[in-house]
Amino acid sequence: MKQPSATVADQAAIAEAAAILEQGGLVAFPTETVYGLGADAENPAAVARIYEAKGRPHDHPVIVHVAPGADLDYWTTDVPDEARQLVQAFWPGPLTLILKRHPRIPDAVSAGQDSVGMRCPSHPVAIALLRAFKGGKGGLAAPSANKFGNVSPTTAQHVRDEFGMDAHDDGALNGDDACSAAELSRVLEGGSSEVGIESTIVDMSRLATHGPVLLRPGHISAQQIADVIGMLPAAPDQAAPRASGTLESHYAPRTPVTMLAADGFAATLSQLHARGVKVALIGHDLPAALTASAHAQRVLPADPAGYAYGLYAALREMDQTGASLILVETPPQDAAWLGVNDRLRRSVFGSAGVIAALLQK
To answer: Domain locations in the chain?
Structure first.
Protein backbone atom coordinates (compact mmCIF):
# COMPACT_ATOMS: atom_id res chain seq x y z
CA MET A 1 0.00 0.00 0.00
CA LYS A 2 2.99 2.27 -0.27
CA GLN A 3 2.28 5.41 -2.27
CA PRO A 4 4.40 6.21 -5.31
CA SER A 5 6.48 9.35 -5.27
CA ALA A 6 6.12 12.17 -7.76
CA THR A 7 9.25 11.49 -9.81
CA VAL A 8 11.09 13.80 -12.14
CA ALA A 9 9.50 11.90 -15.03
CA ASP A 10 6.09 12.94 -13.71
CA GLN A 11 6.84 16.65 -13.71
CA ALA A 12 5.90 17.23 -17.35
CA ALA A 13 2.55 15.53 -16.79
CA ILE A 14 1.97 17.53 -13.61
CA ALA A 15 2.86 20.82 -15.33
CA GLU A 16 0.49 20.04 -18.20
CA ALA A 17 -2.27 19.08 -15.77
CA ALA A 18 -1.78 22.36 -13.89
CA ALA A 19 -2.06 24.24 -17.19
CA ILE A 20 -5.32 22.46 -18.03
CA LEU A 21 -6.72 23.39 -14.62
CA GLU A 22 -5.65 27.02 -14.97
CA GLN A 23 -7.51 27.15 -18.30
CA GLY A 24 -10.70 25.91 -16.62
CA GLY A 25 -10.44 22.23 -17.56
CA LEU A 26 -10.91 19.05 -15.54
CA VAL A 27 -8.13 16.76 -14.30
CA ALA A 28 -8.40 13.54 -12.30
CA PHE A 29 -5.62 13.05 -9.77
CA PRO A 30 -4.75 10.57 -7.02
CA THR A 31 -5.14 11.26 -3.35
CA GLU A 32 -4.50 8.94 -0.44
CA THR A 33 -8.27 8.41 -0.06
CA VAL A 34 -9.67 8.07 -3.61
CA TYR A 35 -9.01 9.70 -6.99
CA GLY A 36 -10.49 13.19 -7.29
CA LEU A 37 -12.00 15.05 -10.23
CA GLY A 38 -10.37 18.46 -9.95
CA ALA A 39 -11.18 21.96 -11.19
CA ASP A 40 -10.15 25.48 -10.19
CA ALA A 41 -12.15 26.15 -7.01
CA GLU A 42 -12.21 29.90 -7.74
CA ASN A 43 -13.62 29.48 -11.25
CA PRO A 44 -17.41 28.92 -11.07
CA ALA A 45 -17.57 27.81 -14.72
CA ALA A 46 -14.87 25.19 -14.08
CA VAL A 47 -16.64 23.95 -10.95
CA ALA A 48 -19.87 23.71 -12.95
CA ARG A 49 -18.04 21.36 -15.33
CA ILE A 50 -17.44 18.97 -12.41
CA TYR A 51 -21.16 18.84 -11.70
CA GLU A 52 -21.96 18.28 -15.36
CA ALA A 53 -19.31 15.60 -15.87
CA LYS A 54 -20.40 13.67 -12.77
CA GLY A 55 -24.14 14.26 -13.11
CA ARG A 56 -23.91 15.61 -9.57
CA PRO A 57 -26.86 17.44 -7.94
CA HIS A 58 -26.07 21.13 -7.61
CA ASP A 59 -27.06 21.17 -3.94
CA HIS A 60 -24.29 18.69 -3.07
CA PRO A 61 -21.09 20.61 -2.16
CA VAL A 62 -17.54 19.70 -3.12
CA ILE A 63 -14.33 19.82 -1.09
CA VAL A 64 -11.51 22.28 -1.79
CA HIS A 65 -8.03 20.72 -1.79
CA VAL A 66 -5.02 22.93 -1.00
CA ALA A 67 -1.25 22.50 -0.84
CA PRO A 68 0.62 22.02 2.45
CA GLY A 69 1.08 25.34 4.22
CA ALA A 70 -1.82 27.00 2.38
CA ASP A 71 -3.26 30.14 3.92
CA LEU A 72 -6.49 28.93 5.51
CA ASP A 73 -7.56 32.52 6.12
CA TYR A 74 -7.70 33.14 2.37
CA TRP A 75 -10.41 30.51 1.99
CA THR A 76 -12.26 30.77 5.29
CA THR A 77 -13.19 33.11 8.12
CA ASP A 78 -13.55 32.72 11.88
CA VAL A 79 -11.22 29.74 12.06
CA PRO A 80 -11.31 28.44 15.64
CA ASP A 81 -8.10 27.46 17.40
CA GLU A 82 -9.34 23.86 17.54
CA ALA A 83 -9.53 23.74 13.75
CA ARG A 84 -5.94 24.92 13.49
CA GLN A 85 -4.95 22.23 15.97
CA LEU A 86 -6.54 19.60 13.74
CA VAL A 87 -4.72 21.02 10.71
CA GLN A 88 -1.45 20.78 12.61
CA ALA A 89 -2.18 17.20 13.68
CA PHE A 90 -3.66 15.67 10.52
CA TRP A 91 -2.73 17.72 7.42
CA PRO A 92 -1.59 16.59 4.96
CA GLY A 93 -3.99 13.69 5.42
CA PRO A 94 -7.52 12.31 5.11
CA LEU A 95 -9.36 14.93 7.17
CA THR A 96 -11.79 17.52 5.77
CA LEU A 97 -12.79 20.49 7.92
CA ILE A 98 -16.01 22.41 7.33
CA LEU A 99 -15.39 26.10 8.06
CA LYS A 100 -17.07 29.42 7.29
CA ARG A 101 -16.44 30.30 3.64
CA HIS A 102 -14.67 33.59 2.93
CA PRO A 103 -16.84 35.95 0.84
CA ARG A 104 -14.15 36.04 -1.88
CA ILE A 105 -14.65 32.32 -2.55
CA PRO A 106 -17.50 31.55 -4.98
CA ASP A 107 -20.41 29.65 -3.51
CA ALA A 108 -20.24 27.15 -6.40
CA VAL A 109 -18.02 24.90 -4.27
CA SER A 110 -20.38 24.96 -1.29
CA ALA A 111 -23.70 24.62 -3.13
CA GLY A 112 -24.79 28.02 -1.87
CA GLN A 113 -23.93 27.42 1.78
CA ASP A 114 -21.87 29.86 3.84
CA SER A 115 -19.44 27.08 4.75
CA VAL A 116 -16.76 25.26 2.75
CA GLY A 117 -14.97 21.92 3.10
CA MET A 118 -11.17 22.20 3.16
CA ARG A 119 -8.58 19.44 2.89
CA CYS A 120 -4.86 19.02 2.26
CA PRO A 121 -4.20 15.56 0.73
CA SER A 122 -1.02 13.65 1.51
CA HIS A 123 -0.49 11.78 -1.79
CA PRO A 124 2.77 13.04 -3.33
CA VAL A 125 1.26 13.42 -6.80
CA ALA A 126 -1.63 15.46 -5.40
CA ILE A 127 0.80 17.64 -3.47
CA ALA A 128 2.97 18.16 -6.56
CA LEU A 129 -0.08 19.14 -8.60
CA LEU A 130 -1.35 21.56 -5.94
CA ARG A 131 2.09 23.18 -5.70
CA ALA A 132 2.27 23.56 -9.48
CA PHE A 133 -1.28 24.92 -9.82
CA LYS A 134 -1.21 28.72 -9.53
CA GLY A 135 2.19 28.53 -7.88
CA GLY A 136 0.77 26.64 -4.90
CA LYS A 137 -1.71 29.37 -4.01
CA GLY A 138 -4.77 27.91 -5.71
CA GLY A 139 -7.28 25.36 -4.58
CA LEU A 140 -8.87 22.45 -6.42
CA ALA A 141 -12.52 21.59 -6.00
CA ALA A 142 -12.38 17.82 -6.22
CA PRO A 143 -15.08 15.27 -5.45
CA SER A 144 -14.39 11.64 -6.31
CA ALA A 145 -13.66 11.03 -10.00
CA ASN A 146 -16.72 8.96 -10.85
CA LYS A 147 -20.28 9.43 -11.97
CA PHE A 148 -22.43 10.63 -9.08
CA GLY A 149 -23.49 7.88 -6.68
CA ASN A 150 -21.20 5.23 -8.17
CA VAL A 151 -18.31 3.47 -6.44
CA SER A 152 -15.39 5.84 -5.94
CA PRO A 153 -12.20 5.11 -7.96
CA THR A 154 -9.00 4.08 -6.22
CA THR A 155 -6.84 3.66 -9.36
CA ALA A 156 -6.34 5.65 -12.54
CA GLN A 157 -7.86 2.76 -14.52
CA HIS A 158 -11.03 2.97 -12.43
CA VAL A 159 -11.33 6.62 -13.53
CA ARG A 160 -10.82 5.72 -17.19
CA ASP A 161 -13.40 2.95 -16.93
CA GLU A 162 -15.87 5.35 -15.32
CA PHE A 163 -15.57 7.97 -18.07
CA GLY A 164 -15.09 5.64 -21.02
CA MET A 165 -11.46 6.59 -21.65
CA ASP A 166 -8.47 4.49 -22.61
CA ALA A 167 -4.82 4.98 -21.76
CA HIS A 168 -4.29 7.11 -24.86
CA ASP A 169 -7.22 9.45 -24.29
CA ASP A 170 -5.74 11.46 -21.44
CA GLY A 171 -2.82 13.77 -21.69
CA ALA A 172 -3.63 15.90 -24.72
CA LEU A 173 -4.23 19.60 -24.22
CA ASN A 174 -5.82 20.79 -27.42
CA GLY A 175 -6.11 24.55 -27.07
CA ASP A 176 -9.61 25.71 -26.22
CA ASP A 177 -11.01 22.19 -26.61
CA ALA A 178 -9.83 21.27 -23.10
CA CYS A 179 -12.08 23.92 -21.60
CA SER A 180 -15.02 23.93 -23.99
CA ALA A 181 -17.08 21.17 -22.35
CA ALA A 182 -17.46 19.09 -19.23
CA GLU A 183 -14.81 16.61 -20.37
CA LEU A 184 -12.00 15.02 -18.43
CA SER A 185 -8.75 16.13 -20.09
CA ARG A 186 -6.17 14.17 -18.10
CA VAL A 187 -5.87 11.37 -15.55
CA LEU A 188 -2.70 11.55 -13.48
CA GLU A 189 -1.26 8.19 -12.45
CA GLY A 190 -0.61 7.57 -8.78
CA GLY A 191 -1.01 3.88 -8.02
CA SER A 192 -3.73 2.57 -5.72
CA SER A 193 -5.09 5.00 -3.14
CA GLU A 194 -3.57 4.02 0.19
CA VAL A 195 -6.60 4.69 2.43
CA GLY A 196 -9.26 3.59 -0.03
CA ILE A 197 -12.30 5.41 1.39
CA GLU A 198 -13.09 9.12 1.45
CA SER A 199 -11.83 11.53 4.10
CA THR A 200 -13.33 12.03 7.52
CA ILE A 201 -15.45 15.21 7.50
CA VAL A 202 -15.81 17.27 10.68
CA ASP A 203 -17.95 20.40 10.89
CA MET A 204 -16.04 23.10 12.78
CA SER A 205 -18.12 26.00 11.44
CA ARG A 206 -20.50 26.00 14.41
CA LEU A 207 -18.06 25.13 17.15
CA ALA A 208 -19.27 27.78 19.62
CA THR A 209 -22.87 26.59 19.49
CA HIS A 210 -22.73 22.90 18.53
CA GLY A 211 -19.16 21.78 19.12
CA PRO A 212 -17.44 19.60 16.52
CA VAL A 213 -19.80 17.42 14.46
CA LEU A 214 -18.77 14.27 12.59
CA LEU A 215 -20.49 14.52 9.20
CA ARG A 216 -18.74 11.55 7.57
CA PRO A 217 -16.56 8.93 9.27
CA GLY A 218 -13.30 7.88 7.69
CA HIS A 219 -9.73 6.80 8.36
CA ILE A 220 -9.27 9.41 11.11
CA SER A 221 -11.56 8.44 13.97
CA ALA A 222 -13.70 10.57 16.26
CA GLN A 223 -11.48 9.52 19.15
CA GLN A 224 -8.35 10.69 17.35
CA ILE A 225 -10.02 14.08 16.87
CA ALA A 226 -11.03 14.20 20.52
CA ASP A 227 -7.46 13.38 21.54
CA VAL A 228 -6.32 16.57 19.79
CA ILE A 229 -9.03 19.08 20.69
CA GLY A 230 -10.45 17.55 23.89
CA MET A 231 -13.97 17.26 22.47
CA LEU A 232 -15.59 14.18 20.98
CA PRO A 233 -17.43 15.04 17.74
CA ALA A 234 -21.19 14.75 17.96
CA ALA A 235 -23.51 13.04 15.47
CA PRO A 236 -24.97 15.22 12.70
CA ASP A 237 -27.99 17.35 13.58
CA GLN A 238 -30.68 18.58 11.20
CA ALA A 239 -29.05 22.01 10.89
CA ALA A 240 -25.61 20.60 10.02
CA PRO A 241 -24.10 21.75 6.71
CA ARG A 242 -24.59 19.50 3.71
CA ALA A 243 -21.36 17.65 2.94
CA SER A 244 -19.92 15.40 0.25
CA GLY A 245 -20.82 11.73 0.28
CA THR A 246 -23.50 11.90 2.95
CA LEU A 247 -26.62 11.02 0.95
CA GLU A 248 -28.38 7.79 1.94
CA SER A 249 -27.64 6.14 -1.41
CA HIS A 250 -24.03 6.44 -2.50
CA TYR A 251 -20.91 4.42 -3.39
CA ALA A 252 -23.10 1.85 -5.17
CA PRO A 253 -22.21 -0.47 -8.07
CA ARG A 254 -24.77 -1.30 -10.75
CA THR A 255 -25.31 -4.78 -9.26
CA PRO A 256 -27.52 -4.77 -6.14
CA VAL A 257 -25.57 -5.11 -2.89
CA THR A 258 -26.85 -6.79 0.27
CA MET A 259 -25.14 -7.39 3.62
CA LEU A 260 -25.63 -10.51 5.72
CA ALA A 261 -24.07 -11.67 8.98
CA ALA A 262 -21.71 -14.63 8.63
CA ASP A 263 -24.14 -17.03 10.31
CA GLY A 264 -26.77 -16.34 7.63
CA PHE A 265 -24.48 -16.62 4.65
CA ALA A 266 -24.51 -20.39 4.10
CA ALA A 267 -28.29 -20.90 4.06
CA THR A 268 -28.96 -17.84 1.88
CA LEU A 269 -26.22 -18.68 -0.60
CA SER A 270 -27.45 -22.28 -0.83
CA GLN A 271 -30.99 -21.12 -1.59
CA LEU A 272 -29.82 -18.67 -4.23
CA HIS A 273 -27.49 -21.24 -5.80
CA ALA A 274 -30.34 -23.75 -6.01
CA ARG A 275 -32.34 -21.16 -7.92
CA GLY A 276 -29.48 -20.62 -10.35
CA VAL A 277 -28.80 -17.09 -9.10
CA LYS A 278 -25.25 -15.89 -9.71
CA VAL A 279 -23.91 -14.43 -6.45
CA ALA A 280 -20.62 -12.56 -5.96
CA LEU A 281 -19.28 -12.59 -2.40
CA ILE A 282 -17.21 -10.04 -0.49
CA GLY A 283 -16.06 -10.82 3.03
CA HIS A 284 -13.19 -11.00 5.45
CA ASP A 285 -13.65 -14.56 6.76
CA LEU A 286 -15.22 -16.67 4.02
CA PRO A 287 -14.55 -20.44 4.32
CA ALA A 288 -13.85 -22.43 1.15
CA ALA A 289 -16.97 -24.56 1.68
CA LEU A 290 -19.05 -21.40 1.47
CA THR A 291 -17.40 -19.83 -1.56
CA ALA A 292 -17.52 -23.04 -3.60
CA SER A 293 -21.09 -22.26 -4.70
CA ALA A 294 -20.43 -18.57 -5.35
CA HIS A 295 -20.16 -17.16 -8.87
CA ALA A 296 -17.21 -15.00 -7.78
CA GLN A 297 -15.64 -13.89 -4.53
CA ARG A 298 -13.17 -11.45 -3.03
CA VAL A 299 -11.73 -11.96 0.45
CA LEU A 300 -10.57 -8.75 2.11
CA PRO A 301 -8.21 -8.34 5.09
CA ALA A 302 -9.79 -8.75 8.52
CA ASP A 303 -8.44 -5.41 9.80
CA PRO A 304 -10.39 -2.18 9.09
CA ALA A 305 -7.54 -0.36 7.32
CA GLY A 306 -6.81 -3.29 5.01
CA TYR A 307 -10.51 -3.83 4.35
CA ALA A 308 -11.06 -0.16 3.50
CA TYR A 309 -8.07 -0.20 1.15
CA GLY A 310 -9.60 -3.03 -0.90
CA LEU A 311 -13.32 -2.30 -0.56
CA TYR A 312 -14.03 -0.14 -3.62
CA ALA A 313 -11.80 -2.23 -5.87
CA ALA A 314 -13.68 -5.33 -4.67
CA LEU A 315 -17.07 -3.76 -5.37
CA ARG A 316 -15.94 -2.72 -8.85
CA GLU A 317 -14.45 -6.17 -9.56
CA MET A 318 -17.57 -8.05 -8.42
CA ASP A 319 -19.74 -5.64 -10.42
CA GLN A 320 -18.01 -6.86 -13.59
CA THR A 321 -18.63 -10.58 -13.01
CA GLY A 322 -22.16 -10.79 -14.38
CA ALA A 323 -23.57 -11.67 -10.98
CA SER A 324 -27.16 -10.80 -10.11
CA LEU A 325 -26.27 -9.95 -6.52
CA ILE A 326 -23.22 -8.87 -4.52
CA LEU A 327 -23.48 -10.40 -1.05
CA VAL A 328 -21.27 -8.76 1.57
CA GLU A 329 -20.40 -10.36 4.89
CA THR A 330 -21.32 -7.78 7.56
CA PRO A 331 -18.07 -6.40 9.01
CA PRO A 332 -17.52 -5.93 12.76
CA GLN A 333 -19.59 -3.11 14.22
CA ASP A 334 -17.08 -1.49 16.57
CA ALA A 335 -15.76 2.07 16.25
CA ALA A 336 -12.69 1.08 14.21
CA TRP A 337 -14.97 -0.11 11.40
CA LEU A 338 -17.24 2.97 11.37
CA GLY A 339 -15.95 4.33 8.05
CA VAL A 340 -16.22 0.97 6.28
CA ASN A 341 -19.73 0.35 7.60
CA ASP A 342 -20.81 3.85 6.60
CA ARG A 343 -19.76 3.25 2.97
CA LEU A 344 -21.35 -0.21 2.86
CA ARG A 345 -24.59 1.05 4.39
CA ARG A 346 -24.87 3.64 1.63
CA SER A 347 -24.00 1.11 -1.09
CA VAL A 348 -26.81 -1.26 0.00
CA PHE A 349 -29.43 1.49 0.43
CA GLY A 350 -32.47 0.69 -1.70
CA SER A 351 -31.59 -3.02 -2.02
CA ALA A 352 -33.98 -4.22 0.67
CA GLY A 353 -35.97 -7.22 -0.52
CA VAL A 354 -33.64 -8.04 -3.40
CA ILE A 355 -32.86 -11.54 -2.05
CA ALA A 356 -36.55 -12.36 -1.64
CA ALA A 357 -37.22 -11.12 -5.16
CA LEU A 358 -34.42 -13.28 -6.61
CA LEU A 359 -35.72 -16.36 -4.77
CA GLN A 360 -39.21 -15.84 -6.18
CA LYS A 361 -38.05 -15.86 -9.81
So the answer is: 11-229, 257-360
